[in-house]
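Fill-in record for NACHT domain-containing protein.
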Amino acid sequence: MHGSLSITKAEFESREKNLCKLLIDTVNALHHRYHHSMKTTERNELIKEIKDNLASIRDGNMLYDLQRECQEELKTSLKMMLHFNPVSFILGSSLALDVTLVFTDIEIKHWTNRRACVVSYQDFLIEIHNVPGRRVVLLEGVAGSVCRDPSTNSYESLVQKYLPTTFTQFGINTKPLLAQCRILVLIDGLDEATKPSCDLTHSGRHTNQLIQLMQEKVKLEHFRIPLNLLLSAWVWDQDPDALGITTTQTELYYHTHRLSKMKLQQRLSNHQATCDMSQATISDLIDEWEEVLCKELLVALSLNQLVLTPEAVRRLRSEAMNRGLPDEEMLGGFLTSKCIKLGLQQYSAPHKGLQDYYVALHIVESLRKYHQVYTTSSRLMSRPMMKRSSIRKVLNDILASIITDLKMYQNVLQHLAGLLHLHIDPVPNHMVVEVVELLRDAGVRNREQWLDLVEDTKASPAVLTAIASNALPFQGLWSSISSISSHPSINVKDGRVIAYSALLPYLTPTKVRISIDGKPPNLTPLVDSLVRYTYTLELWDLWYHPNPTYTPNASIQTLLSSARISGMVTFKGQWTRGMESISPSLRYLSLSLSDGTHVTQMVPLLHSLPRLKYLEIHVPPSVSLADLSTTTPLPEVPTRLQMSLIESTWSLLGFTRLPGAHLYQTDLRPGGERRACQVVASLQPPNAYGWLYFPDSTLGPLEWELVLKILGEFGVKARGIRAPGPSTTHDNNLDTIARTQLDGGCFESSPLTELE
């Protein structure tokens, strides 16, 4: 009743014609009645004006009108947002703070004709609007409102919500008209994004690639650094093809540096001091000056300083002016500045990580030149006049001292390893070996750092050989030693498939664990290497969220096929539908079943696993009782003969979870007690369950008492029930009931909120 009105395009055109006819008829009627005071020429001019005005709306001037209306409506909306309640989540609070008392003013400089003028941030959009050829419309809401509003799930609904008057006035023309504007949409809180807000961001510019890229990248530790996330978004915006799933941190900085130099060169080509130079000359001069800058940053790093000394800044200014380059532009192109007192600026690299990168860049360029001279002299003479290049020698020569402590150069060396193949082709083996040795001497022991090295060097065979043959780096690759085995095992996580695929042929582990938290990646590179090992495959997302429509990629299908699974001893996740068997080599199986059909297909196959010692089944709430009534129970795991031997051994090793068949049921709510118990009873193995788990259940003590009694009615036997929640005085009572109803079982409460 009070919603916005809207019409279709056809309706709009029809009404436009009717309006035009009505207005012309009105003018003709006026002329007929007042022909003595309205001349025919005046009537014709008025009719022409009516037609022109309607045509202008239809043919393009409507854009100007929309921009004007948007501006006025946004001004009104923004004025209403000048006061907000920072504690609105507290019921009854009415605090209203002026935003200018809370947020810091931002000073913006607008450059025109090589002169700068300060612009207030409140006038920033107006300033941009006045620039010829640019139109910016700002769509902004209260912090978090877009991400939390389930109704705002498209670009059209966003416009309709924040520009209701404009949307009503222009109707179906609003969206195509806005498409002709340059629109800035500010979205905060994407880390708290809901499905509607994801739909909203997807409906704008094609950001799917960036979102998917970041979801993969944040699995790696160094891509969780805010700077790297920021640089990734900027590089993607400038050059989307530059980033990929396999892009390393060094490559990210490489592209950041490349694009920054490109923009600096563009600015210099329009600068009054350098506009007469050729592009090639400007590029060469930037490279020369940058070499001086990188050396100054190396000296600062050797002194454990991020900020350049005033003497270093003076040298950089002098080097720029000697080359005819504007010193402020050059310093601003690579460094950040901070005013520490009137007339005194302090310059530094934007971040310690970028300083390390620039230092590595300087070393690799020195190595490249040194290696080039050495290679040339080797061709011309039977005995070269100089020794071959050495990373340590280059460092010592630059700093005029012998470096003994390499710890502060650890990140530099990591970047250096990644830059070698970008600047020297081919990379001499002795350089690769030296990088590995220097990293070891610099204190690199962390497994992730060695994996970074493999990726940074694009899995260079020389690097792989050096890592595998070097005792300390080799140890850094192992996960912790299993308590039941003296043999080391490798743990392959998301984002590390390529690195481990390259390394495995050079290593000799006895066990490989592939543990994937997110969407199963392409494991093809690993498939051939796994033939030599016993291995574990864990697909955690499918264990948590079984999916009836799940279709494994080709690599997962290959690993689950009978030709490849002789070495698989552990599996966690969702097994492929339609397969006629499960690997008989499996000893530990955690299987999620997506629906009733999946249950009836997979449960009978479990009886053909002679080595199975441990079984977990995750049954979702959507499973049909009718399907369960037609399936066989779970197998006896392990057999009674195995049980006594295994239990005693596992108890001695300190395992809290004993072998057996365990059942997980999710989403148990009050009112669903009997149905849950029917599921448990339908699948009960001959010997008894191990543990019955009910993660994320919301039952209280009285409901749990009912569950125990119903299980007793159905004759269910189990080692016990584990339910979420802190231990309470009710537990003793429930435990007593459980021992009676579950044939000696027990009841335990724990902070179990999800599947383990």
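KEY FINDING: The chain has a mean pLDDT of 76.
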